[in-house]
Design a protein that fits this description.
Layout lengths: L1 E6 L2 E8 L2 E8 L22 E3 L6 E2 L11 E2 L4 E7 L6 E7 L23 H7 L2 E5 L4 H4 L14 H16 L5 E11 L1 H9 L11 E5 L9 H14 L15 H18 L31 E6 L4 H6 L4 H8 L5 H9 L7 H24 L6 E6 L4 H5 L10 H5 L6 H4 L4 H21 L19 E5 L4 E4 L3 H6 L9
Parallel strand pairs: 2-4, 5-6, 8-9, 8-10, 10-11, 11-12, 12-13, 13-14
Antiparallel strand pairs: 1-2, 2-3, 3-7, 7-9, 14-15
Helix pairs in contact: 1-14, 5-6
Length: 495
Amino acid sequence: MTTVVNTSFGALEGTVADGVRRFLGVPFAKAPVGALRFREPQPLEPWEGVRQAFGYAKDPIQSNLALGPEHFSEDCLYLNVWAPEGAGPDAPVMVWIPGGAFASGGAGAFKPEGPASYDCHAMAKETGNIVVSVSYRLNVFGFLNLSGFSPRFDDHLGMKDIVFALRWVSEAIRGFGGDPANVTVFGESAGGEAISALMLIDEAGPLFHKAIIQSNCYGSFYTVEEEREICEKYLEFAGLDAGHAEGLLELPYARLLEANKKLDEYVLVRFFGRCSFCPVADGVYLRGFPTLSSYVGQTKPVLLGSNKSEGNFQAAAGWKDVDALTQPLLRRLAPDTAAHVLAQYPELPSLAAFGELLTDVMYAFPKLRHAEQLCAGDGPVYLYRFDYYTPVMEGFGLYACHVAEMLPLFELQTPPFRQFYAGSEDEVHEIGLRMRAYWGNFARSGDPNGAGLIRWEPYNLETRQTLVINKTDELVSDAEAAIRERYAGIERILL
């Protein structure tokens, strides 16, 4: 069965299944190719007639095309919409911003029919909210600020893509029954980091009203000086000198992506703990760093959290040279302060202790700092920690690692995630039902509470109430007190 909606850009035809209308592969900007490569996103030209929106677009060009370059595209500025039947005229809107270290990921799929990593059908059906998932330019295409090397380049492209998608939502979502005055952005990892950046980008402010930030690696931002260094190194790795940056326009994907790999190796030592490609806090477009900025007067409700064993993902994935990487992780700390921090992990150099150190430095400690900063604003703050893991994840030594909360939230069907909860499908489903209810309630009203859920109190500096999500949920006062004590007196580590 198909359905048609009218938007300010033209009519869209989607499909209907199980009470949800689905519109896939919807463009929100002109294709950023040819003369628009490395340029700011440009407005769509309205189309005539009815445009079919039956299949996912391809994901953006990734840092690693080992799965086959035919599955990815520079023509990547597309989004997907899931709208419950009967939604509206003022249904809450949730906009999903996917992660992937600003180098991989996306809201598309290998094939138009899917499966996609982020199928938002259940979120829309169970919450009654309209859900939108967004792709944006990645790696060199979206996160190198090269305007200082040539006027042919624009800056902050990946972030501007996200803002452009939010502008599309503001202009078009009424056609689906959505309320452009009640938009919640939610995202994980680099997606969560992008949201914390959106809160400090003036032009983004009016386009969303609540934020859900999952597993943000807050240290993955560059200063202007660091970005200059990163750009110079990237050009060098691509075989270009700083005076001929426009040569990037002519290089084949193989050369561009080989330079990505070399940059990864450089950042691993020089900026260990950060993504190779990061947003740039230039004080103009992006006003500052999320954990160091003032939120006085900020009124948006914020829900944020991390997983209990985030760093096990990185440790298991290849960051196993504990002795070589520990010092770069703490390079910004004075020697005596670094020694004090390391003393809190007496089991080092075991891989398990290294995973705990990565968890604290990259996720838990800056999450707490961000929550504290947000408490100075006028909007409520809700904090969570995700503790659940399956026997399969325990067997791999992952436990509640980075990405773990995504298994129930989306009940991910794409490999390798599906295998991680094999045999635990019922548990994962029950946790997912509760998480989608919390998230959906928050998107509706700024308060995650609802029938059948444990009472979740806002976070403040006195009680520090934290929802611990597991087989059953528990509200705990100061659940991460030990981490706060370990890092008492330290303002920042990676930045």
